[in-house]
């Protein structure tokens, strides 16, 4: 695609990066077929190619974002299915992140929308605040009929019982069982540890059982993805993590990997190098951290899973989170690990399509998100599975809100199969099949 940016515009590193991305797009439109919003809405402006045109026009002409641009960019899930499909290597993720930051700078949203975004950006990255917000949601549930649509969706997604905080999420070191083979840092995150603290617990048991010393680093927390993808920064969170892990890296034994068990966060940590590329004091450290980042399924594949010690064999529908399959190109590892743990892994039809979770998307665009969730749930039901496994808390919460079948994290099944406790959500029914 030809572009007409001036030298002055290209002096800005974000514009320079977007210009390179735009020039790679050859308008072929292959990406439209796999874009969930185009599949649902059938509007070219809700396809990757249509959005690329809108973003190009806005950036090239230095225009403030218009209502039309905001509408169609807001409807984008950032699922990155278009990046998997694109034969030209268009980095849509960096382009849309730049567009979102430009929108936040140049467009004044209606106040309810602004308020909602500010509240989400403040609450979700802070586990203590988020836990209290969920307790408030439980009290508000009986009055949900009186609330606006977005609030109703939030209440539906909120758990009926808020789990207590887990002791594993505090800064500490978990020694390896037997000989230490690796020293790894675990990102304990923010929203996940509130909604499903058992995921970090299972991850730590699994890793220590497989010879890893696991460090929960002082000062590390939210990866910044939620605010970054809303165009509201995220660099401060990322900076804290980079500093915390760089300190750990300097200690005796160093770090062999930074392990992430929420793939939405993993995609962002792997992108820290890009996010800080123009920051002279951070660029090198950020690039190092990104190079060490591994999804838990990647690290467990490198290590090799021990033989299962309990009778498995249940049929599991593996839901491939967009951030894992499209954002990190991690597709086969989780399925192979589940198979190695003895599970009968079922492919979900239309597995490339998003479940509608997409960070805060299910809260900000509830109608489209619910349609995608229902489509995902129907596809899962066709597999004949008795449980669902996924590698991202957003997907787990979203899919579980539309079905009664247990939806758990892949590591919970791997941990159970190799000697850990069974997730109580699985119940006897799933364990018997
Ligand atoms: S990120 Fe997903 S929703 Fe957005 S344009 Fe690409 S395929 Fe479509
Ligand atoms: S598939 Fe790639 S090159 Fe083709 S229109 Fe989509 S983004 Fe552009």
Q: What would you say this structure looks like, in words?
A:
Helices cover 50% and strands 8% of the residues. Strand 8 (387-390), helix 23 (393-400) and strand 9 (407-409) form a beta-alpha-beta unit. The strands form 2 sheets. It has a 5-stranded mixed β-sheet with strand order 1-3-2-4-5. It has a 4-stranded parallel β-sheet with strand order 7-6-8-9, sandwiched between helices. It contains 25 helices and 9 strands. The chain is of the alpha/beta class. Helix 2 (13-24) packs across helix 7 (92-106), helix 4 crosses helix 7 (92-106) and helix 12 (198-209) packs across helix 24. The mean pLDDT is 94. It has helices spanning 7-10, 13-24, 36-41, 48-60, 67-74, 81-85, 92-106, 111-123, 127-140, 149-157, 191-195, 198-209, 225-228, 235-249, 263-269, 272-275, 283-292, 296-303, 322-325, 333-340, 361-364, 366-381, 393-400, 410-417, 427-432, and strands at residues 172-174, 182-186, 212-216, 257-260, 293-295, 315-319, 344-347, 387-390, 407-409. One iron/sulfur cluster (SF4) is lined by residues 35-37, 48, 51, 76-82, 92.
Largest sheet data: 5 strands, mixed
The count of β-strands is 9
Instruction: Identify the overall geometry.
Output: globular
The percent range for helix content is 40-55%
The number of helices is 25
Low-pLDDT residue intervals, each spanning 5 or more residues: none
Terminus-to-terminus distance: 54 Å
> What strand order characterises the main sheet?
1-3-2-4-5
Sheet-strand content, in percent, reads 5-15%
Ligand set: iron/sulfur cluster
Mean pLDDT: 94
Structural class: alpha/beta
Rounded to an integer, what's the Rg over CA atoms? 21 Å
């Amino acid at each position: 695609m030809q572009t007409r940016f001036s030298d002055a515009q290209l002096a800005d590193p974000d514009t320079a990066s977007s210009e390179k991305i735009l020039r790679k797009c050859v308008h072929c439109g292959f990406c439209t077929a796999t874009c969930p919003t185009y599949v649902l809405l059938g509007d070219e402006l809700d396809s990757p190619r249509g959005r690329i045109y809108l973003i190009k026009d806005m950036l090239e002409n230095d225009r403030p974002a218009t209502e039309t641009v905001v509408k169609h960019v807001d409807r984008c899930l950032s699922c990155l299915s278009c990046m998997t499909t694109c034969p030209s290597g268009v980095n849509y993720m960096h382009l849309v992140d730049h567009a979102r930051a430009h929108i936040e700078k140049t467009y004044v949203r209606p106040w309810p929308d602004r308020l909602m975004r500010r509240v989400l950006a403040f609450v979700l990255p802070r586990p203590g605040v988020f836990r209290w917000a969920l307790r408030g949601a439980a009290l508000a549930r009986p009055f949900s009929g009186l609330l606006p649509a977005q609030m109703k969706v939030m209440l539906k997604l909120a758990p009926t019982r808020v789990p207590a905080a887990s002791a594993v999420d505090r800064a500490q070191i978990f020694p390896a069982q037997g000989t230490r083979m690796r020293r790894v840092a675990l990102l304990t995150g923010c929203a996940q540890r509130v909604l499903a603290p058992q995921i970090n617990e299972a991850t730590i048991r699994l890793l220590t059982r497989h010879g890893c010393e696991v460090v929960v680093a002082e000062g590390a927390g939210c990866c910044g993805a939620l605010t970054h993808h809303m165009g509201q920064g995220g660099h401060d969170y990322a900076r804290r993590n980079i500093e915390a892990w760089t300190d750990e890296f300097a200690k005796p034994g160093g770090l062999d990997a930074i392990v992430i068990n929420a793939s939405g966060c993993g995609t962002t940590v792997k992108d820290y190098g890009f996010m800080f590329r123009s920051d002279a004091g951070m660029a090198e450290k950020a690039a190092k951290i990104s190079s060490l980042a591994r999804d838990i399924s990647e690290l467990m594949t490198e290590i090799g899973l021990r033989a299962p010690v309990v009778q498995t064999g249940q049929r599991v529908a593996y839901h491939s989170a967009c951030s894992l399959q499209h954002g990190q190109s991690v597709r086969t590892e989780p399925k192979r690990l589940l198979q190695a743990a003895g599970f009968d892994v079922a492919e979900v039809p239309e597995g490339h399509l998003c479940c509608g979770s997409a960070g805060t998307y299910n809260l900000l665009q509830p109608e489209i998100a619910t349609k995608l969730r229902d489509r995902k749930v129907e596809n899962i039901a066709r597999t004949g599975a008795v449980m669902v496994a996924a590698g991202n808390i957003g997907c787990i919460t979203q899919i579980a809100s539309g079905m009664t079948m247990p939806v758990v994290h892949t590591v919970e099944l791997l941990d159970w199969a190799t000697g850990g406790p069974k997730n109580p959500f699985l119940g006897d029914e799933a364990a018997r099949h």
